[in-house]
Design a protein that fits this description.
The structure holds two protein chains of two kinds. In chain A, 23% of the residues lie in helices and 22% in strands. By secondary structure, chain A is α+β, with helices and mostly antiparallel strands. Chain B contains 16 helices and four strands. The relative contact order of chain B is 0.12. Chain B is 61% helix and 3% strand. The longest helix of chain B has 30 residues. Classes of the chains: A alpha+beta, B mainly alpha.
Chain lengths: 184, 427
């Protein structure tokens, strides 16, 4: 067995180690305010919801509102567009989840789960790839085409082709009456 | 490396030398610093880059006296600088085009380093410090491009910061938390603009610091040279001043001439017309392209149809540069004596240009060749594969199998042709 030859730690050794430890912990605590100051302020966090009258939107039209700094798509779909989206098997989709904030996280991406009132599709207009705004009525699936990097969404806003990993998000919304919605 | 030692001649300089040997420092690092006598045109870009860093800092400081980092005022304040501030048009375009000239020079500088093997032992750290400067330059340029708050500024900021959202695919919600933290909001907005301005002001001074280390790391082993052989003695070198101060100044003048032509006659040559439209968070421009110096990396990102992997390929292309000193297995530095490597090098240079071209085209662009459409994304994939293969496969393996040409004994012999028995270099 090896003999322990190091001298007994002195009171001074203890003070050195204790001072170093306190300094390290203090440095971490001191750094936090400098990091956290970059997060959204209270004012930004007090996220406003918006109410919109949607009575003027015609079938086959999309209107863009601004919500929390992002574009909000409100699209009144034609029967043909609804049927196209409804006829797709969920298993064949790159992202099989509904991504609907009004539903549980694991809800499947059926057309019904994407648009609870089939005629009205309400989406956050932010491409899930790198955040550009996709252009409506373009691309192979007639939904949206993102010009930045070529992601294509169908008429239910589900990703079908290109680098985007997820379906366009459906925000929390309620119909206050048949022609008025509140989002957020 | 040191030249003749400094000897103070007056009472004052003797007094100063004992207390703050600053004249000795300048003497050792600039005046008498021994430099290989065969440095060619391609070696003048280090000096040009130092000059450009100075230009960017000086023009930047005065532009900051007029610029307003506020989402509602930024665009107008830049227009105000261009139209109403005395000589504001000159200062703005010196700065904006200066960034492009800076990158032009740094790319020549980097390709020169690759060609002549300037990254090889004992200059590994010199190369790595250079890569750090390059990455800091890209960050600075990105922050600066956001400041005019036009459409390209806004959407460029959105796309680049969203690269971090791909972390969501590794740690759920972590990527979103990072982007929110970077933005200070749930989208790119006023807080983002403010902090980008702060960082854009800060980073050039950090670059200046790393440039100091870069030059320090250069002066310990001394310059590489086009022959890639070590300096053997005083016959191989000349003092930096006046030989290279004169040579650098001459080429700097030519460089500034090109710079001036762009600033005075084509100030928007490198710019994108969409950036004269104020930022609109609801409409993305149809063709969003980064500045030219980022295009090859943009093409790599777009060549991958999966978000996370695309982002990794982009950052991996930069990270690869850090390993270059250890990936090259050849004992010979300069491509002048590496017949095989020389060919791969030029293919690599063309590859970077090709990737840049593809990056400048739309995501769904294609070449029409007869009755056949070649989607450019396939060119980007090919180009990306070659980029990686060049560093991770070609650089290690060619060094093992290649038979280099015979090296001259000394720089002096090669340059002066002394003792004619040795063949003079072809160039």
């Amino acid at each position: 067995m090896a003999e322990i030859t190091a001298p007994e730690p002195t009171r001074r050794d203890f003070l050195y180690v204790a001072t170093g430890a306190v300094t390290a912990v203090g440095a971490v605590f001191a750094a936090w305010p400098f990091i956290d100051q970059m997060n959204p302020t209270g004012g930004v966090l007090a996220m406003a919801s918006i109410e919109q009258d949607i009575s003027a939107i015609q079938p086959g039209q999309q209107v863009v509102f601004k919500w929390r700094g992002h574009p909000l798509f409100v699209r009144r779909r034609t029967p043909k567009e609804i049927a196209e989206a409804d006829n797709v098997s969920v298993d064949s989709l790159p992202d099989p989840l509904a991504r609907n904030a009004n539903l549980p996280d694991d809800a499947p991406a059926t057309d019904k789960n994407r648009a609870t009132k089939a005629e009205w599709l309400i989406l956050v207009g932010v491409c899930t790839h790198l955040g550009c705004t996709p252009t409506a009525f373009e691309g192979e699936y007639g939904g949206w085409l993102c010009h930045c990097h070529g992601s294509q969404y169908d008429t239910a806003g589900r990703i079908r082709k290109g680098p985007a990993p997820q379906n366009l998000a459906v925000p929390v919304y309620t119909f206050l009456n048949p022609t008025r919605i509140r989002v957020g | 490396m040191h030249g003749p030692a400094y000897v103070p001649k007056t009472n004052f300089t003797r007094w100063l030398d004992k207390r703050l040997p600053i004249i000795r420092f300048v003497n050792d690092t600039i005046t008498t610093y021994p430099t290989p006598r065969n440095l060619n045109f391609w070696y003048t870009f280090g000096g040009i880059l130092t000059f450009m860093l100075g230009v960017q800092i000086v023009t930047g400081i005065v532009l900051a006296m007029h610029y307003v980092p506020n989402a509602n005022l930024a665009f107008d304040s830049v227009e105000n600088i261009t139209r109403d501030v005395n000589y504001g048009w000159l200062l703005r375009f010196l700065h904006a085009d200066g960034a492009s000239m800076f990158f032009l020079a740094v790319y020549i500088h980097m390709f020169r380093g690759l060609y002549y093997g300037s990254y090889k032992e004992p200059r590994e750290l010199l190369w790595i410090l250079g890569v750090i400067i390059y990455i800091l330059m890209m960050a600075t340029a990105f922050f600066g491009y956001v400041l005019p708050w036009g459409q390209m500024s806004f959407w460029g900021a959105t796309v680049i910061t969203n690269l971090f959202s791909s972390i969501d695919q590794i740690v759920p919600h972590a990527g979103t938390a990072i982007t929110t933290w970077l933005w200070g909001d749930f989208a790119v907005g006023d807080p983002t603009l403010n902090r980008f301005f702060s960082l854009h002001y800060l980073l050039p001074f950090i670059i200046a610091g790393v440039v100091g280390l870069h030059i320090w790391a250069l002066h310990v082993p001394g310059n590489n040279n086009p022959l890639g052989i070590d300096v053997k003695g005083p016959q191989d070198t000349v003092p930096f001043h006046p030989y290279y101060t004169a040579k650098d100044s001459f080429y700097l003048c030519l460089f500034v001439l090109v710079y001036a032509i762009i600033v005075f006659y084509r100030p928007d040559f490198f710019g994108n017309p969409d950036n004269y439209i104020p930022a609109n968070p609801l409409v993305t421009p149809t063709d969003i392209v980064p500045e030219w110096y980022l295009l090859p990396f943009y093409a790599m990102l777009r060549s991958v149809p999966q978000k996370l992997i695309g982002v990794l390929v982009l950052f991996g292309a930069l990270a690869t540069l850090f390993f270059v000193p250890w990936l090259d297995t050849s004992k010979v530095r300069s491509c002048r004596f590496r017949p095989l490597m020389k060919q791969f090098f030029w293919i690599f240079a063309l590859d970077c240009v090709l990737l840049g071209y593809v990056g400048s085209q739309t995501a769904d662009a294609a070449w029409h060749l007869g009755g056949f459409d070649l989607p450019l994304v396939w060119l980007a994939r090919l180009g990306t594969i070659y980029y990686y293969a060049f560093f991770w496969v070609i650089l290690p393996f060619v060094g093992l199998i290649e038979r280099p040409k015979s090296l001259p004994q000394t720089i002096a012999q090669a340059v002066l042709g002394a003792g004619r028995s040795q063949p003079a270099p072809a160039e």
